[in-house]
Structure formats: C-alpha cells, structure tokens
Design a protein that fits this description.
The protein is mostly helical. The chain is 47% helix and 3% strand. It has one domain: Serine Threonine Protein Phosphatase 5, Tetratricopeptide repeat, CATH 1.25.40.390. The chain has a two-stranded antiparallel sheet with strand order 1-3. Strands 2-4 form a two-stranded antiparallel sheet.
C-alpha cells in the first residue's frame, strides 16, 4: 500500500460521503459537483478498512466474539448482546451506505469518464474490474455475518425495500465475478495510481488479491459443494498471495489514524483487555507472539487475560500491545497467511494443490511469525512442539487452532474459521445472549429491516435453515 497522497485523497473524500437516505445519495440539485471516480473509490477503500479495523462496540465486536479481547466494565457485547446497541443495523448501514454505495458510485462515474488512447482505455477497464473485486470482498463478509442478504436488488435508489438473495447463490455469483475480474485485469497497464490506498495502482497485486479471494471463498464452501470448492481453489491458488504478501491500508496518523488508536487511545477509555481464551492458549504453547500481541504491563513475561464475558478491571489484566495502538498501525484485509491456512485445509481435504497440508500449515505459522517481528527459526521451533505440530488425523483442530491464533485482530475472519472448522474450543460467557448461550453462528437481521422491509425480511428468514432469525441459526456454509 502506498502512503502517497492519502491525506489529500481522504480530505477530498469527506465531500463525497453518502447521505443517510438512498434517494438523496450524492445529490445536490442546487450545487451539483462532479467528483472524479478515483476519489470516490479511495473513499470507499478507507471506509472499508476502517470498518475492518474498528473495535467500536457499536459496529464491530468481532474481536470480542473471536475471544481475542474481553471487556473491562460493560460486558454486554462480550456476552453477545447485539440488540441493545442495534449492532446489526449499524453493520448493515456501514456496508451498504458507506462502502458498497461508494464503490457503486465510483464504478458509475468511471464508466462515464472519457478515455482516449490505449493506456487510458485499458486503465479504465482495470479500474472497473478492481471495483468488482472490492464489491465481492464486501458481500462475502455480509453473507458470513448474516447469511442471506440483499444483493441483486441492493443499492437501487428506486427500490428502497430490496429483496434478499440466498447466501449460496450470492457466493457463487461473487466467485464468478471475481474470476472474470482476475481474467480480465491487464498488468501491462495502470489503474488508480496513487488513488489506490491498498496497492498504489499495482494491477499485478490486484490479480493476486483476486486469486486469494477466490481461494478464500472457495474453501469456505468446502462443506457445501466439495467438488465446486476444489475447482475454485485449484484454479486460483497458484496466482494468490505469497506467504508474506498482503492487502492492507497503512494509516498515516493524525486525522487519518487507525480506528484502533481512536478507540483505545484517543478516546481516553480503557474498555478492553486481552481475553483469557487467547492468553491461556498462548501461555500453554509458550507462543513467542505474546510479546507482539500483548503488553507486559503485569511484568516481564507475565500475561494474564481477563475471564471472557466477566468484568475484568483494566489494571488487573494484560493490555493490548502498544504498537497495535499506534495511530499508523496498518490494517490487513487479506494476506498470504490466510491463503496458506486455506491451502493447508485444501490439501487435507485432498484438493489438487501442490504441496502438503503440513507444509502449508508450517508456512502459515512462519509467515505469521515474520509479520509480528519474529524469525523463521523461532517459527520452526514452535511448529515442532508436540502441541503445535500438524496432526493429519485431527487436521480441523490443528488448522483451526493455529489459524485462530494467527488471525489475531481480524475477528470476523477468525469467527468464520471457527464456525467452519469448529475449532478451537471457545469459552461460554456467563450471561451469553444467544439462544443457547454459546458462540453465535450469525447475526440476526437489523431491526430496521424487520420493521421497514418486513415482507422481504420474512422471505429472507424462509431461506435460512431452520427458518428462524436467531443467532444459533447457521449460515449456509456452516455444516458442522
């Protein structure tokens, strides 16, 4: 990701943010302003990265659901209360209004912009395909959160009551569109240049992103349609991210700070400590990444996580590592660590990927160690421990546990992995608000959808199995 011009792009982006109502979206009849599509795209990228990074309990509680962190005083969210703060409503609004609407607007504006000459024509084509992949990334997250969501009717300003599409159908269409984008991108030409906040306009990296996303979506469908999943993964894995490559936004600090800094430092609040679920496991494994994940505020080499879901006084438990709380800490959206774990799973399932499950598993661990400032020798020693070494007979447990540790800070990714592989074992909080008190399998639909879009909401429920809008109802790919 290139830092160049980020401040300028974001300042311009302020003027193009969406309104609260779809029918007023980016419309000022008295003072119409033509905003270049590249700037709208950059604004959408920033909004997406902010949503992924945020730990604001009003909109992103997946670091809690994954049991990486727990709360110090107000423990509602750690006990899976998503209703009190209308979290599903805010997630819906953020993705559809603030992110996907801007990607849609960017595509419409760019489509109408003139392009003369071979370079401009091909760069324009690349831009439109990159936006398609960004849309796919967003929609697969929405499906992973809710299940069936508005897709074909979404973002239509003439239809403010969209119907819902089956999550399985959405995934297949996202895979088709992402594959078409990968096939259509031409790395011999440019794209967004410095207006691309993730890759600085590097089309070759966008191709790797697309292939990595295909691997991710393909393996997610493994228990639904194994043959289809295998074909997707096998067709994409060789063009995906290398173990140390990633898609990230590097924040600049100041007014363009990582939301983690805003939530944990700038706010002056002390709402979170490390959760005992993760800390205890890493202590048991003597995991060297503890010093990168956590502060040593209790003493050198001392790590004590707050009991998940219980009130955990800030002064008594291990804090989040200081570097993670820096204003310029980068936010990863997708990386080679994820890809390596997915390929380990693919190999374990017998897919036609070169390399062994153990090899990919160890590669993922090594890449994680390198990212957090450790070295390959430390990773090798760690992977050789009996409690860490890959166990082919229990591959779900091996991959699930180590992926969960390595996906630290990416709570939704970790929660999705947990639901698919049923590993590792997570704690049951004392006052869990799910119907069975255990870890949620999905978010219930927004209250606004239940009341304002009631007919389509009821139809969406009928697409669930069982047809119940509950947190224990599983997303279509969750078959275990």
């Amino acid at each position: 990701m290139k830092k160049i011009y980020l401040i300028v792009m974001l300042l311009i982006g302020i003027s193009i943010s969406c309104t609260d109502k779809f029918e007023e979206y980016n419309t000022d009849e008295k003072n119409p302003v033509e905003v270049p599509g590249d700037f709208v795209f950059a604004n959408a990228q920033k909004a997406l990265a902010d949503q992924v990074a945020s730990t604001n309990v009003n909109e992103n509680i997946w670091k809690l659901i994954a049991q990486y962190w727990t709360e110090t005083t107000y423990t509602d969210e750690a006990n899976y209360d998503i209703v009190n703060r209308t979290i599903p409503d805010i997630v819906f609004r953020t993705y559809y209004r603030d992110i996907l609407a801007d990607f849609k607007n960017a595509k419409e504006v760019i489509s109408g912009e003139p392009a003369a000459g071979d370079e401009a024509v091909n760069a324009k084509a690349n831009k439109l395909l990159i936006i398609d992949m960004c849309n796919a990334y967003c929609y697969q997250r929405l499906v992973n959160i809710f299940g069936n969501v508005p897709y074909n009717d979404a973002l239509d300003i003439d239809n403010i009551l969209p119907s819902y599409d089956n999550g399985n159908d959405i995934y297949r269409d996202l895979i088709s569109k992402t594959q078409a984008a990968v096939d259509g991108l031409n790395p011999d030409y440019g794209s967004f240049g410095a207006n691309d906040l993730y890759f600085g306009g590097d089309v070759a990296m966008w191709i790797k992103f697309g292939n990595s996303l295909l691997v991710k979506m393909g393996i997610t469908m493994a228990d639904v349609d194994g043959a289809f999943a295998a074909s997707v993964v096998e067709g994409a894995y060789q063009g995906a991210f290398a173990p140390t490559e990633r898609c990230e936004l590097v924040y600049l600090g100041g007014s363009n700070s990582n939301p983690l800094y805003v939530d944990l430092v700038q706010s002056g609040r002390h709402d979170f400590v490390a959760a005992n679920t993760l800390v205890d496991k890493m202590n048991d494994l003597e995991d060297p990444r503890r010093t990168a994940y956590f502060a040593e505020n209790l003493g050198s080499g001392v790590f004590d996580g707050g009991v998940y879901g219980e009130s955990s006084p800030f002064a008594n438990y291990t804090h989040i590592a200081d570097p993670i709380q820096e204003a310029d800490f980068p936010m990863t959206l997708l990386d080679g660590i994820e890809v390596q774990f997915y390929l380990a799973e693919a190999a374990a399932r017998g897919y036609g990927v070169s390399g062994s499950a153990e090899g990919y598993y160890n590669s993922a661990i090594t890449a994680s160690f390198l990212y957090w400032g450790l070295n390959a020798d430390q990773a090798a020693a760690y992977a050789a421990k009996p409690a860490v070494a890959y166990d082919a007979a229990n591959w779900q447990q091996s991959i699930g546990e180590q992926a969960w540790i390595a996906f630290y800070l990416r709570g939704l990714v970790a929660w999705t992995s947990y639901r698919r592989l049923d590993a590792p074992a997570l704690n049951i909080p004392p006052a869990g608000q799910t119907e069975d008190g255990d870890v949620p399998r999905r978010f219930t639909y927004p209250i606004n959808e239940q009341t304002l879009n009631a007919a389509n909401y009821q139809a969406a429920i009928q697409l669930l199995s069982p047809a119940e809008d509950k947190m224990i109802t599983k997303v279509f790919w969750d078959k275990n």
